[in-house]
C-alpha cells in the first residue's frame, strides 16, 4: 500500500497506475467481435481501439499500466505483447496483462468491472501507487489524465469521475451525473429516461466517460466492501460510484478541461464506437480534409504495434484502369492496382485489384478485393477475400440477404458471410 507520509505534489501521473478494463465483448459490433474483444478491434488503419486509452496514459506521464482482459483475449493479448512491451521495470515502469484467472476462488471469472480490479488488488498493492486511474479500453479520444489527477487532489475527492457534456436528449444511454455549482456529484443515475440537467445549462447533461480517479487506499477499502455486499453486481457504474456519491465526496471532471487538441482540432472529440454505424462513421471521419480527430499530432502520438511493411503502392496509369485514392487513408503494405478508392480507409496489407471501386469503405488488414468489385458504405473484416465482381451497397434487399446491414445502410462483410454465398 502507499506510504501516506510521502509528500504529494505534481506530477501526479508518476504516482499513479492506469488500470484499463478491456474484458468486454462489445456485442453491438456484431461479427467484428466474434473472434476478438472490442478493445482489440482495428481502428484508423493501423491502431486498435485500446491504443487510445493506453496512449493517453503514457502521454500523460503514467508509467505503471495494467490491462484486465477476459472475453476472447488472444488477439488483444498478442497486440499488447507486441506493441506495449517497451516499458521497463528498471526505470520504475511496468506493464501488466491481467487475464481473468480465478485468482480469488476457483469458480469466479471477473464478475463485473469493479471485481476485475478487486481480484488483482494484491498486484496493485505490490506497486504501491498513490492513485488509481480506472479506464475503459473501448473509446476513441485524447485526454491528459494529469489534469484530472490534479483536480482530484485539489478537491479532496474520494472519487473523481470523467464526464462530458451533451444534450439531455442524447444522455439516456449513459450514466448521468447530477452536480451542484462546484461540480460535486449529488446523484448518479444509470441510463435515465429523463436525465438531470447541469446547473445553469438545463438543456445539457453530464455523462460518465467510464474514467475514475481514486486514492488507492480508499479504492481498496471500497472494493472489499463491495465484494462482501450481497446482491452487488460488482460494477463501478452500478454499485461503487452510486455508493460513494451517497456516502462520500464524488466530483465530476469535465472533459473540456483535459481534452488534448492540436491546432487542427477545434472541437472536443470522444467517441464510443460500440455499434457498426458508429465504428464506420468514426473511421470515415478520418478521411475528411481536416478531421475532428488529429491522428497526425506528433505532440500526442497514438502508440501501437507498428508492423514492418513496405510503402503503399499505386499502379497502372491507363484510362479506366488507374490506381487512385482520393480523400482516403491508405496504410503501409497496401496495393491499389488499377482501382478507384474514394472516402475510404485501407488498413495494412490491403490489395485492391483492377477495375474495383470503393466508396466509403472501411477495410481491415489483409483484405484482398477482387477485380471489378464495387463496395459502397461497407466495413470489411480482417483477412476477407472479396470475389471479383461483387457489388455491395447498391441493392438494399440483396445486401440484407447476404450481409449484416444496419438501418443506415452500412454493410459489415466477413469471410463466413461470403463463404455462405458459394
Automatic annotation (TrEMBL):
Against HAMAP family, the record matches this protein to: GlgC (MF_00624)
Q: What is this protein called?
A: Glucose-1-phosphate adenylyltransferase
Keyword Transferase among record annotations:
yes
Q: Give its E.C. classification number.
A: 2.7.7.27
Q: Glucose-1-phosphate adenylyltransferase/Bifunctional protein GlmU-like C-terminal hexapeptide domain: from which residue to which, for each copy?
A: 310-413
Tell me the residue numbers annotated for binding alpha-D-glucose 1-phosphate: 110, 175, 190-191, 208
The feature of type site (Could play a key role in the communication between the regulatory and the substrate sites) is located at 70, 109
Q: What does this protein do?
A: Involved in the biosynthesis of ADP-glucose, a building block required for the elongation reactions to produce glycogen. Catalyzes the reaction between ATP and alpha-D-glucose 1-phosphate (G1P) to produce pyrophosphate and ADP-Glc.
Q: Which reaction does it catalyse?
A: alpha-D-glucose 1-phosphate + ATP + H(+) = ADP-alpha-D-glucose + diphosphate
Any one GO MF annotation of this record: nucleotidyltransferase activity
- In what pathway does it function? Glycan biosynthesis; glycogen biosynthesis
- Alphabetized InterPro entries for the sequence: ADP-Glc_PPase, ADP_Glu_pyroP_CS, GlgC_bac, GlmU/GlgC-like_hexapep, NTP_transferase_dom, Nucleotide-diphossugar_trans, Trimer_LpxA-like_sf
- What lineage is this protein's organism placed in? Bacteria, Pseudomonadati, Pseudomonadota, Alphaproteobacteria, Acetobacterales
Keywords recorded for this protein, A-Z? ATP-binding, Carbohydrate metabolism, Glycogen biosynthesis, Glycogen metabolism, Nucleotide-binding, Nucleotidyltransferase, Transferase
Q: Tell me the ranges covered by the Nucleotidyl transferase domain, including all copies.
A: 19-287
Among NCBIfam families, the record links this protein to: glgC, PRK00725.1, PRK00844.1
Spell out the subunit comment: Homotetramer.
UniProt record similarity statement: Belongs to the bacterial/plant glucose-1-phosphate adenylyltransferase family.
- SUPFAM superfamilies this protein is in? Nucleotide-diphospho-sugar transferases, Trimeric LpxA-like enzymes
Q: Which organism is the protein's source?
A: Roseomonas fluvialis
Q: Which gene encodes it?
A: glgC
